[in-house]
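Quick start: read one record
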Amino acid sequence: MKRPFVFINVAMTADGKIDTISRRGAAISSPRDKERVDRLRADSDAVMVGGQTLLNEDPKLTVKSESLHAERVARGLSPNPMKVCVITSANLPIHSKFLHEGSARVVIFTTNRTSKDKLEALRAGGAEVFVHSGYRVDLAQALGTLKELGVNRLMVEGGATLNFEMLRLGLVDEVQMYMAPMIFGGESAPTLAAGVGVERGEAIPLKLIDAEKWDDGGVLLKYLIERSE
């Protein structure tokens, strides 16, 4: 495989929303799910988010548990997995939490729509920046680069546009979703996958491999992406 194993992880409401209409990273996960996500990050080589998620939420993408930090270090790894962002125009604040909080390698994939001054500032701040020539980042090429950088297991944490494009292009192997016992509603509230969408005949088929009913009222679902031979 010339790309990492890729899985999408998402917490969503019973009506399929991954955030409210305000798009500021509303809390959905239960305490148990937060522990599960922390373990997923600790077991991954890199964690990826899209540009809108980065600009709206400025996530740290770090492992919170000190014991999980210790486990990674004992395996000869950094305390946190690599942080990765895919963003068309990388106009993120130079002092963002994504860039500076937590000991982790930072990789940004962007396009020539990002100014040279901003590219220089990001690199001066310690980020490794890869610039693609097209209107958007070439996701397949980006995954190939990550593989070359030693990433074998990639966790994708949204948002909806990145999730959809990764799925549409056949770049995802597994989807894990925690469905919380709540409803947000809202036509503009984001769902697991957005983008341009597909017709019924092009729907991305999933194979359920696990389903757990939790005491917190939530449900954990795990799917493999079914591929045609």
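The chain has one domain: 5-225.
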